[in-house]
Amino acid sequence: MEHEISIPDLQEKLKTPPSSPGGEQFCLLDVREPWEAKLCALPGARLIPMGDVPSRAHRELDPEAHIVVYCHYGMRSLSVVLWLREQGFERAQSLAGGIEAWARSVDPSMARY
Q: For the chain, what is the mean pLDDT?
């Protein structure tokens, strides 16, 4: 599994119900700070700020699950994905370009900062 997932691939995952053919249950993880998540967020995302991931990951995340991690531009999320994979979360992926790329290409009405 690649370390990053593209915007179109995530869009497809969000459109496809887990119970349908090709559908998959996955966790959407926002690693930004709470003030950032208040400005804009993807529906259904779980907020665990990057600095809290080491203390919370093993208690709150399933190491077998597909986890799509995002941040503002994709740098923090990629760092978190690399750490998660070292911890055995082999199906963690970073959203390429972060929520900024999502807002530009998918939802131009989303607040940008």
A: 96
pLDDT at 108: 95
Instruction: Check if the beta carbon of residue 107 is closer than 8 Å to that of residue 58.
Output: no
Range list of H helices, the chain? 7-15, 34-39, 53-60, 75-86, 98-105
User: What are residue 69's DSSP bridge partners?
Assistant: 29, 94
Tell me the domains of the chain and their CATH numbers.
4-105 (3.40.250.10)
Give the span between the Cα atoms of 15 and 41, in whole angstroms.
17
Sign of the four-CA dihedral 98, 90, 48, 54: negative
Answer yes or no: are the C-beta atoms of 63 and 88 closer than 8 Å.
yes
pLDDT tens digit sequence for 20-74:
887 888 999 999 999 999 999 999 999 999 999 999 999 999 999 999 999 999 9
Cα 34 to chain centroid, rounded: 15
